[in-house]
Fold this protein.
Amino acid sequence: MSLADKAIEQIRELIRTGALPPGSKLPPEPDLAAQLGLSRNLAREAVKALAVARVLEVRRGDGTYVTSLQPSLLLEGLGGAVELMQGDSGALQDLMEARRLLEPVATALAATRISDEQLTEVKKHLDAMREARDDVERLNAHDAAFHRAVVSATGNETLLTLLEAISGRTLRARIWRGLVDTGAAGRTLAEHEAIFDALSTRDAALSQAAALLHVSNTERWLREYLGSGEARISGTTSRT
């Protein structure tokens, strides 16, 4: 480990042990450096790195604070990393595989916890998807909202953040554009309807099966498309 990495780890340890709980203010830079046995430059570098990672928040004129440490905040950078992977077909297939492993189980959990209000939210986005079946941008937006509403019903913020990152906005747009172009959008809409119907009955096993079928079909379509040598939907990343 470099000296900077060691400095970062020392501050993380203070947070992990509760010496610096969420929302707490760090000591002034000279005091922090002395407490950790670091130079002021190393302490400053470590603080900057942890601020980029959203572990710390530097408030000008006030000091440096530990953030809320909520999963949605700490994992925020994951979505950006996924967007950068869009040009790598192997990485895209890995992302879909990861989604297949996580989303069906999340959907099963949602079936056991979803409220009537949350179910209404899911249906709202399903209805909007039906109305926008030829409009890729609207389809993409309501598809993302549909799945977000489903996973939100689990009450598991970490799971929600991970799945939202894996199913990045650009990747969803890329898939929907291809489905609309090949006339397969109707089948995919029917798969969303099956997920909603299963959730409506609060049947965890059926919900998991419906989600697995949907994600598996999408994954298979993506593998076939990427392996076909067809146009790579150039410009999708810049337009979405």
Summary: The chain has 13 helices and two strands. The first helix runs from residue 3 to 16. Residues 86 and 171 are 7 Å apart (CA to CA). The longest strand covers residues 56-59.
